[in-house]
Amino acid sequence: MRFDTSPGRFREAHPEDSFSGSSGVLFEQAMAQTRMAICLTDPYQDDNPIIFANRAFRALTGYEEEEIIGRNCRFLQGPDTAREPVRQLRSAIDTEEVTVVEMLNYRKDGSSFWNALHLGPIYDNDGKLVYYFGSQWDVSDVRAARSEERHARMLARELSHRMKNMFSVISGIVNVTGRVRGIEAEAAEINARIQALGRAYETTLDDASSGTIELGQAVRSILSPYDADGHRMDLVGNGGRVSFAAISLVGLILHELAANATKYGAWSADNGRVTVSWLPEDENGQVKLSWLETGGPPVDVSMIGPGTGSAITDRMLRTGGGAIERIWNRNGLHAVVTLPA
Q1: Separation between Cα atoms, residue 266 and residue 226, nearest integer Å
Q2: β-bridge mates for residue 129, sequence order
Q3: CB 116 within 8 A of CB 135
Q4: Distance CA 96, CA 122 (A)
Q5: Could you tell me if 162 and 184 lie in one domain?
Q6: Is 43 helix (H, G, I), strand (E, B) or coil?
Q7: Both 105 and 161 in a single domain?
Q8: Is residue 261 within 8 Å of residue 272, measured between CB atoms?
């Protein structure tokens, strides 16, 4: 028997069921007019054929109504349709269960699309199975986005592995050169900077596919060796992202500040503390990072001069479009670093 989509027509399959009266008409009209692709099948006819397909279903698949009605939904399957979701559908029909699967389907023109198919039984008021309901949603774009994200994460992990190896090789070269030339102290100082760079990138590469890095994640990784017991440093921040290229700046700057605090500043005293705080991007497209030392030895401003580390970080910041302001308070340094977001 052929059914069209006008109100009341697909009720001919089961004239004794409860889909009658005004509520049944409203139900049918809603099914026909919704933008979600919907079809109904008749489990009492041979091969459970489609007896109703709304306009959205026809638009999604490219088939006309007369090409759909009376056929089993499997006509949308094709050469690359996986067997497992098909098996799940058959099992759900056999046991009258609700299921949701994603499967590759094909349109009339031969083009494929990923179909998130929701299948479930419809019962009348007496609990008797009347129809099977299927709603279809084209999730091809969602699948593509998932695939791109997985690919980006795989590349990030590979890049992380290679960068770790690269930093290890560079560190080894510096150590050997230092021993050969009798400049072990200078080599150790250079290696400390290399290790800080490595920590800056180590835990942030998985996030790099977005083009920006969460600042707090990098700060924690870089500074963790300087406060192993967690009692001499406070990290305060929520949000704030910087460009992937700026992470090297963050690594070097925080290393120089931490090294200075260990030798001369707050961390050279028993009760010295450092508070590192940061804020999300401001209206100027910048992120500010604050380094505040307290409880350290008294600062003699007249004895402070430019060091190698300061010169390196200042030059790199200028090149990268950032800046640093150093405020020498009586009991410690307050540095404010501005970074491009």
Answers
A1: 12
A2: 123
A3: no
A4: 9
A5: yes
A6: coil
A7: no
A8: yes
Q: How many CB atoms lie within 10 A of CB 132?
A: 22
pLDDT in tens, 88-104: 999 999 999 999 899 99
Encoded tokens for 106: 């094909």
Residue listed under structure tokens 């992937």 = 244
Distance CA 258, CA 280 (A): 23
Residue 153 lies in a domain: yes
- Residue pair 101/88 in contact (Cβ under 8 Å)? The answer is yes
Q: Are residues 126 and 147 in the same domain?
A: no
**Does 239 lie in the same domain as 156?**
yes
Q: Which residues pair with 136 in a beta bridge?
A: 37, 117
Strands (DSSP E) contained in 82-128 are 99-106, 112-123
Which DSSP category does 111 fall into?
-
Structural domain containing residue 246? 143-340
How many domains does one find in the chain?
2
CA 249 to chain centre: 24
The pLDDT tens digits of the residues spanning 113-158 come to 999 999 999 888 788 888 999 999 998 888 887 777 776 667 666 6
DSSP helix/strand/coil, 104: strand
Phi-psi region of 287 (alpha: psi -120 to 50; beta: other; left: phi over 0): beta
Measured in whole angstroms, the distance separating CA 272 from the mean position of its chain's CA atoms is 38
Token code pair at residue 97 = 């269960």
Contact between residue 101 and residue 147 where contact means Cβ atoms under 8 Å apart? no
The answer to whether 102 touches 130, Cβ cutoff 8 Å, is: no
Residues 133 and 152 placed together within one structural domain of the fold: no
Antiparallel, parallel or unpaired: β 112-123 and 129-138:
antiparallel
Instruction: Give yes or no: residues 202 and 320 share one domain.
Output: yes
Asked which of 82, 108, 138 is the last residue of a domain, the reply is: 138
Among 138, 170, 196, where does a domain finish?
Answer: 138
The CATH number of whichever domain residue 63 belongs to comes to 3.30.450.20
Query: Is pTM beyond 0.85 here?
Result: no
